[in-house]
Amino acid sequence: MLIAYHGDACIRLTGKHDAGEFAVLLDPYDVKVTGLKPIRPSAVHLVCATAGTLPEFGEGPFVVRGPGEYEVHGVSVTGFPAGATTIYRIAAEGLSIGHLGNCAVPLDAAMIERLGEVDVLTVPVGGNGVLNAKQASAVIEQVEPRLVIPIQYRAPGLSLPYESIDAFCKEMGCSAKSPEEKLRVVKKELPTDEMWVRVLAVD
C-alpha cells in the first residue's frame, strides 16, 4: 500500500487487491478553509470524511460521512463516533489503518476496543481544535500501532492555527528534518517488537 499526505487531515491510500487497484481519500479538505492547493481527485474509489465541506468529485467515488460499516471496491471501512468527529478503521491489502482525522478528544476504553489492533495509525498532533502532541502520544500508547503517521500540524501554505510538529517529535523521539514524499507499507515488513514513526511531506 502506498500512503501519501496532502496536508491537514488528508491522507491518500492506494494499492492493489483481487478486485484490482483501489484509491481511498481520507478527509479531503476545503481549499478555502485550509489555504492548501486543490486535491487531485483522479481515480478515487472511496472518500471518508469527518468534517467540513468536501471538494467536488463528480459521480466517481463512494462517499462515507459518519459512523457505519461499508465495503467498497474491496476496501472495508468501519466508522464510529469520537466526540464531534468520526474515527475510521480501513482494511485493505491485509493492512488495517486507523484514521483519527479531526479527533479532539482522548480515546476511552470503548473507542480503543472498537478500533482494535491497527497496523498503521494516522493521528492529529497540532492542537488548537485537534489532539496536541501530548494527547497524541497518550493515544498512541493506548492503541499500540506498528506504524504512526502524524497529521494536522503546521505546514507551509496551511492557514489553520496548528502547532508545529516539533513538540510531537520531542514526545516520540523522532525527527521531521527529512520527511518522506510517500510511504510504501507492506505488512510483513512492519516491525513486531517496536513502533515506527514516519513523517510525510505534504504532497
Explain what you see.
The protein is 14% helix and 34% strand. The strands form 2 sheets. A 7-stranded mixed sheet has the order 6-7-8-9-10-11-13, covered by helices on one side. The mean pLDDT is 92. Strand 8 and strand 9 (95-99) form a beta hairpin. It is of the alpha/beta class and 203 residues long. It starts with a strand and ends in a 6-residue tail after the last strand. The protein has a single domain (2-197), classed as Ribonuclease Z/Hydroxyacylglutathione hydrolase-like (Metallo-beta-lactamase, Chain A, 4-Layer Sandwich), CATH 3.60.15. It is globular, with a radius of gyration of 15 Å. Helix 3 (133-143) runs parallel beside helix 4.
Write the layout of secondary structure elements.
Layout: E1 2-7, E2 10-17, E3 20-26, H1 31-34, E4 46-49, E5 62-65, E6 68-72, E7 75-82, E8 85-92, E9 95-99, H2 109-115, E10 120-124, H3 133-143, E11 147-151, H4 166-172, E12 182-184, E13 196-197
Parallel strand pairs: 3-4, 4-5, 9-10, 10-11, 11-13
Antiparallel strand pairs: 1-2, 1-12, 2-3, 6-7, 7-8, 8-9
